[in-house]
Records
---
Amino acid sequence: MAKLPAATLQETLIQKLDYEQLTNCMRCGFCLPACPTFKETGVEAESPRGRISLMKAAVDGIMEPGISFEDQMNHCLGCRACEPACPADVKYGQLIEQARDAIETHTKQHRWWVSGVRKIVFKELFPHQKRMSLLGSGLHFYKKSGLQTIVRKTGAVKAFSKHLSDMEKILPDASSKGIVEQLGTYIPAKGEKIATAGMFRGCLMDVLFTETNIKTVKLLSEAGFDVVIPETQNCCGALHAHSGESDQAKAMAKNNIRAFQEAGVDYIVSNAGGCGAILVEYDHLLHEEPEWKESSSWFAARVKDISTILVEQGRPLQFAETIDDGASTRITYQDSCHLRNVMKGSNPSRQLLKEVGNVAFIEMKDAGSCCGSAGIYNVTQPVMANQILEHKMENVNATAAQYLVTSNPGCLLQMKLGIEKHGQKDRMEAVHIADFLYDRVVKK
Amino acid sequence: MLDSRVRQKLQDIVGEAFFKDDMESLVTHSYDGTPMLQALPEGVIYPKDTAQVSAIMKVLNEHRIPLVSRGSGTNLCGGTVPVQGGIVMVMHRMNAILDIDLQNLTATVQPGIITKQFIEHIENLGLFYPPDPSSMSISTIGGNIAECSGGLRGLKYGTTKDYVIGLECVLASGEIMRTGGKLMKDVAGYDLTKLLIGSEGTLAVITEATLKLIPPPKYKKTMLAMYKDLYGAARTVSKIIENRIIPATLEFMDNPTIRVVDDFAKLGLPLDMAAILLIEQDGDMETVERDIERISEICREELADEVSIASNQEEALRLLTARRSAFTALARLRPTTILEDATVPRSKIADMVLEINRIAEKHRVQICTFGHAGDGNLHPTATTDARDHEEIHRVELAFEEIFEAAIGMGGTITGEHGVGLVKAPFLEWKVGSAGIAMMKGIKEVFDPHHLLNPGKMFAKESRRRVVIDRG
């Protein structure tokens, strides 16, 4: 970590925060009802308006940012629901990243295990696709070898943390083979080709949800896209950027841009809202580097979420009429915050789900508000994450849906966790939208 | 810094978690929705019931410490900025609906409940609470009462003061007082309920309110009329009322606003129009159809260039979008948005808009005007940059002239935002010196030590009027 021992957090904030954006906040308060942490606490400091006022006060020298300043910035989920609510178009997402970036170069207050998790996740794991697939093999072994059973029975995980032990229960069947190993790097379109789509496979997606990646590619092919999966791509860098590791995020962005440019794609398709949101903002991430302006804009303009590209560019998919007994399947949809608030892709997902034969789509109350997963937030801020999940599950359960559809791996795991905790496992299943759709598509 | 004994006493009342004086809490309670104002309090307190408010007030009274009570801090007059330090009391924890009386059609609520949540609750019961300030998705009922909030339905249904029939409040001494009740008629003494509504937290802390509910309208229709001639639009407003039609909503946008809104929302609005009126009527289907028909006739008689009536909900929503986009569009133009609140008799709307445009040009500032034409409540809105002190000075001069013009036309300095800090220097222009003396006398009785929201409503000195009377 690049420590700047001479500077104070205040000086670094002055250097990193975009003062124009701080000034643009006119404190109207429209963001307050959109903010999950404000909704949970009712405390001004836990709102976007409050956090911006703290950043500005620190920059203006009204206060010295201390531990509770850091806490307040870290309590933000980064869901960015405040941005569509803001009349003045304040780029809150950028401000919070800049603040966290500054905090990261100074903080000493991470609890030991948070530091540990961060180091492993950010430095040793996510940037290295090979290590990610080793992790996949490890998890695969963990589940299949009986080790999971041993761990559960002995209560070894519980000793670690209640939250992690809950998380451990919902771990999906990880795969040791990623999508390239299973499908290769080129999958031709079914029928007449519309365009070439580059598949962004993601790091975690490719390990924990390889099957979802495979189905995403097959959906694209069904809809008329040649799919290429550039092998040299890596993690999107979202978690790094959101947690203040922006240098690392930039390095990963550059590598991804190169990979997809070399592949010569028309679109770059993401099936994870969290990844997609940073991919469409690569131009902003690299805005201080003029030599990257052209290629980062090239990249950002091509990024599409899987649902959006299917609805807007793809050949209409044909869904199977009914599934036998005639009773319709109740489904509901939990928005991915970043897909909704940053990629503006909340409608295409719903449109597709409603096109599926014989389903009753039940709109969940507050479907657009964060589930509490938020990257690694549910690991680093388990108390707030749990509180948010509890309230989310009240709305989920009220729909009495059989399928809870999501568009992001983090949300999917969080929803699985919610269903597990609330004993709904027998009658409700959380699924990724690509899986749900592909299973119901009439294949050509 | 707060005396440590006082701090201890306050913590003992609410518990450690609900009294805060760390810098982060102070900074985040140093502002409200008003641009360019900020002052740090010495502590922030979150009471949970009336008894706690009373106990807190007794401590503050004993030690002569000022108190600013507030909800979500969305107000636009500087009403909840703690300019004299002291304690900020946030009412969010007192957010219960205490009673819905379906026999008397009343609701009794704590002040911290969010207006929209309350309205949704009431509507689910098939009832209607009309006051709908634009900030209703976050503002609290208590804040609405303190500022006597209005909104888009004010013309037909009245504002907050028409729906509050009983209050419980804590006085500066810490005593608890109740006024009114679930009564539609009550002339027992002075009407203290009405006096407290719009008193901006300067007389007492409101801890409970009884609100009147009414049956909801069955049917609604929306229309838009566009004019090349500002006077045509203004005459339409007067003529609708003259024809004894009171629309539910009668909203106005001037040409500068139309241009900004269209540029932002790409609604395809004609840019050569001097004004747009957005009109809604609700009630029985037959009446609504007849009223809308007659209103569109009036619009045409007054030479509206275009009149469009929404044929369905979606179309109505599209028409409403134009008006609703106004604030958002204006807010994005420049870093600082100063939304003001001058109000004139509705027959003077065209004169007032022309006057605002003339004043804006004179001072070389951008002011767009939109607002509630039906009740003469205009929102001249300046888009500027707080960092440009010279420009801000010109904006201030312009607004001073705008308020003066409004009063000259028989209007007022604020129709629904309140006086607070921002309008305090102009209050005397509206109410006269006798009016100020009377108001100060009332304040003296309620709050002899000037502890409740000090510095608000009454300025140290009034701004001298340059022109005495325009008639």
---
Amino acid sequence: MGLRKAALVGAALVSAGFAMAATGASAQNEQFIPGLVYRTGAYAPNGIPFANGVADYYALINERDGGINGVKILYEECDTGYATDRGVECYERLKNKGPTGAAYVNPLSTGITFALTEKAPIDKIPLITMGYGRSESRDGSVFQWNFPLLGTYWSAADIIMQHIAKKEGGFDKLKGKKIVLVYHDSPYGKEPIALLEQRAKMHGFTFTPMPVTHPGVEQKATWLQIRQNRPDYVLLWGWGIMNSTSIKEAVAVGYPRDKMYGVWWSGAEPDVRPAEGGAKGYNAAMLQHGAGQFAIHGELKKHLYDKNKGSTKWEEVGEVLYNRGLVNAMLGVEAIRTAQKKFGNKPLTGEQVRWGIENLDLNEARIKELGLEGMLKPLKVSCSDHEGTREGRIQQWDGAKWNVVSDWYQSDDKVLKPMVDAAAKKYAEEKKLPVVDCSKQS
Amino acid sequence: MFYREAGQFKTNYVADQQIFPVLQDRLFVLAAIVAAFVAVPLFATPYLYTEILIPFLILSLAAIGLNILVGYCGQVSLGTGGFMAVGAYAAYNLWLRVPEANNLIVVFLFGGLMAAAVGILFGIPSLRIKGFYLAVATLAAQFFLDWLFARVKWLTNYTPSGSVAVGNTSVFGWKIDTPDERYLFILAFVVVATLVAKNLVRGHIGRSWMAIRDMDIAAEIIGFRPLRTKLTAFAVSSFFIGIAGAMWAFLRLGAWEPLAFDINRSFQILFMVIIGGLGSLLGSFLGAAFIVLTPILLNQLPGWLGVKMSTALLSHLEFMVFGAMIVFFLIVEPHGLARLWAVAKEKLRLWPFPH
């Protein structure tokens, strides 16, 4: 009867659960890289193109070069659904795989980054949080294992504020203006508030943060408030379905889209397309690169897509988030390459890769060699600066594609540096962490 | 053949009032506890500790707490996540602001007590509101507490992102750092808490809860005061849930945000109680095991079997199979997994000669 069947199913599951033995050891000359992605859930529309970009770059390195200096990349995905506890489970599941364990981890969620920040120093696995994560973690003397490469949220907010100030004719013209931040009510969305409050104090504009709860489809009340207050600018810190909902609500209450500025996670095709014509004029910060195809995409076509080995349709290659996945994977691979110069061309441990990221130095020539010319500016990571570079531009959606509408901005370190130092110091004191003296590092 | 109480005579009241009157049951439970304390640490890997055993134990404790309220006292609650959050943030604030109290036992008990106080507060409407309506009223607790921890900056020590972190935790100078230390500490806590819960539910207080559950008017007529009975159920239930919340935050996550205790957590624990078995402590453990472990197993099973499939398909399959399993178990045994266990024991008594 049913009972016996149930017992059998249960017994099978339990025995499988305790047979935790990892799948057999694979070839020794492989570098394992875990991928925490989300191809399901409320954030999947944005998670999928990113994950495809990452997977394709690793596949390209294996196909074209036979790995990193002969060390094949072993890449395994785990679906987190953007949930912190599931992300931590994925991390624990994957961290010891491969001959040397995980080279580094891309948590791909600020919430998961916060949780893993506690674990990384114990497991000795670096976190590459490209364009997300804790803003103060760029201070490598306290956050030795965190690398918010290419930019933090404080940099993003500062770049957007600089752009707005430029449009208004200088920071002094911002006095008395009203700026609203519509943000995802999670660590991710709250990150820029500290900087915007600081800027508001400096320049005398009123700053109002307005939270939107996960997953962000319920925003009517927020936009009603915006309609009443008529702020001069609306900044958008959303992700996934929340972005397109915000733009649609802006259309509904008649808020001008060209006064809206999204962070770089609110500036991709899945965010603006659902609003159709309504998104025209909407602006977003760029994490250096934008959409479009460059030399690297030709390589992808030749080695993967012409052989039917790509992870998506060719039409989607070159979208903003796909490109971000490529860049993210590239930074990791280059870090491993850097580390190999010191430790030899063999699979490296997380600790060795950490050295590689900290000494990562991509100059113009190298970026051109990689086929990324036009997408990235040079970056140089150091012990005291785990961000590498903090430059960005603003792009605008014209109804069919993204256009770059600004020059390069660099976030103002006169404002940011004291904030980073104070926040990092507070973190170190609270957790009683040892602080590394960066001046003594070679 | 082996599971039979024939010949086990009870000659005094102590023997008659034991938790497990049958010798075989006693031995089995003792063996299980010894195995958990001694045998598991011999072979367990860090992954098994941190992702399987620790979440299982902590959520079992939360399920026990909710089972006291829903299963034993009949008051449906959807505020579990909120009460866990109270435990977590109360414990965090004590740990942060009173350096002398850096002892996990003190910190967790404080979290539990604060949760109990909040539980009593939100339990007051239960005197007037019943059944589904009470479930809706407890939703208010969930949303209010979510809001409180997201908005009142003092509670999260003014961190810019609202995410707080703890570290350097110890018990009487014993630093609890590694997965096995955490596991043993949680296990000890859960064993003691389960013992307390068991004795509560089989004693006078538990009987008063069950009387209220089965028919509140009759209970009132035979002399149970509904207000006091219901509020003790809310207090005890929230106390356990608060401790579970503090443990989840301190020993499972280490760094967390209010989202870790959102409405989904409430549903998750309510499902554990329903699938495990209402009004059964064993059911709380079985339900927690089912809800925590099955999705992880389903997600990894194809990998162990050597089947290659895409991450997305794997995740979707996980959802579908898990949903189907819930439906299957509820059809086979609507009273939960604990009832399946009880039926199995009945059959075992007759085996090998069923009539």
